[in-house]
Design goal:
Elements (H helix, E strand, L loop, with lengths): L7 H13 L5 E7 L10 H6 L4 E6 L6 H11 L5 E5 L5 H14 L10 E6 L6 H9 L17 E5 L3 E5 L11 H10 L9 H15 L1 H8 L8 H12 L10 H13 L11 H30 L1
Parallel strand pairs: 1-2, 1-4, 2-3, 4-6
Antiparallel strand pairs: 5-6
Helix pairs in contact: 6-7, 7-9, 7-10, 9-10
Length: 304
């Protein structure tokens, strides 16, 4: 499944962010704790330069805590990067972001000028909710659908901090392909741009490998199905989701799998680990190298 989702307002957002980011004293990027790599925007490192960066792993309560710790260690290897984890409606925890911002900008005199902070994140990671928590008032729109924030705005925070909110935007092409599936599972991509059942099948395959006991317990299975499709068939049988002719209704099963993952009914789960994404990156580089080699070979043949 190749997902290419880059609406016009996101293209505009990218240009605006590129213009104002050099003026920032600090950057906050909100990530989904279940998919820190897939929800990280690869445009940020190229636009950031040496500006200090706080990566907020949001929705911690929905993620596997052991894997979240791995991600924090992995992300903080990058120079000038600190991480913090958050869960829903924990104001004291969220205010820790501002304390961390102060620690990371010790040379900035807030008596003379405001600390300029940009907060960004891809759609549906909870950025607007965090902004409202930090501001102590509803200043940013929130919603369960991606791409609620459409325009950049500056918000005054305590201790002379000026927070620049930005629209959530994805990168032009989602790569490697597995990142697109993970984003779709968590709801960062609108359902209209992907195949619903394909995404649920990807999730089912992953859950069997990563969380077999939780899957068996949740869906009342005595044995673990051999693959994702077999799991979907088993859920259809348990829940009596059948279409005409007794065929398993995979669309209904897909709704169950995706909704129960998103709302945490399946338990705290993460969809990726640092080791996994490093392996995927190596494989992607290998594929790109092979493509380049074939292209060069083709040029040689044409010249001959």
């Amino acid at each position: 499944m190749a997902i290419n989702w880059f609406p016009g307002h996101m293209h505009k957002a990218r240009k605006e962010i590129k213009k104002v980011m050099p003026q920032m004293d600090l950057i906050i990027e909100v990530l989904d704790a279940r998919i820190p790599f897939s929800s990280e925007n690869p445009l940020v490192p190229t636009l950031r330069g040496d500006t200090p960066l706080i990566r907020v792993l949001n929705k911690r309560d929905l993620a596997d805590p052991a894997i979240t710790e791995q991600w924090q260690e992995w992300l903080e290897r990058e120079r000038g990067v600190r991480t913090i984890t958050l869960t829903h409606n924990q104001r004291n925890e969220a205010m820790g972001i501002l304390k961390l911002a102060e620690e990371m900008t010790p040379d900035h005199d807030r008596q003379k000028s405001a600390l300029r902070v940009m907060i960004l994140g891809i759609p549906n990671v909870g950025k607007s909710t965090i902004i409202n928590t930090l501001a102590g008032r509803p200043v940013a729109k929130t919603g369960n659908e991606p791409a609620v924030t459409r325009a950049q705005q500056a918000i005054k925070l305590p201790d002379n901090i000026l927070l620049y909110d930005t629209p959530g935007f994805l990168w032009p092409k989602l790569s490697p392909e597995a990142c697109g599936y993970r984003l779709a599972i968590t709801g960062a991509i609108r359902s209209a741009v992907l195949d619903f059942e394909d995404v649920a099948l990807f999730e089912a395959d992953y859950l069997i490998q990563a969380y077999p006991e939780q899957v068996k317990a949740r869906y009342g299975l005595d044995q673990l199905p051999v693959d994702g499709l077999a799991l979907m068939d088993a859920i259809a049988a348990k829940r009596r989701f059948f279409a005409r002719g007794g065929i398993p209704d995979l669309h209904k099963v897909s709704e169950v799998l995706l909704n129960e993952f998103r709302n945490g009914t399946l338990g705290p789960m993460s969809l990726e680990t640092p080791d996994m994404v490093e392996q995927e990156a190596r494989e992607a580089e290998k594929i790109e190298a092979e493509k380049a080699a074939r292209k060069e070979a083709g040029k040689g043949k044409r010249k001959a």
